[in-house]
Amino acid sequence: MDANTLHITNGDSAANIMAEAGLPGQILPWRDILHDGPVPGGLSPHQLAEVRADFLHQPPIAERDEILQGFRERDQTLQEFRDFDTVVIWLEHDLYDQLQLLQLLHWFSGEAPGQTKLRLICINRFPGISPFYGLGQLNPQQMQSLLGSEQPISREQIELGRRGWLAFTADTPLPLLDFLRQDLSPLPFMAAALKRHLEELPDSVTGLARHERQILEMVNAGEHRPGRLFGDHQKLETAPYLGDWGFWSLIENLVNVPNALLKTANGADFVRPPGIDNSEDFLAQRLHVTESGRAVLQGRSDWVALNPPDRWKGGVHLHPDITIWRWDASLQTVREHRL
Question: Which domain holds residue 237?
Answer without folding.
Answer: 203-308
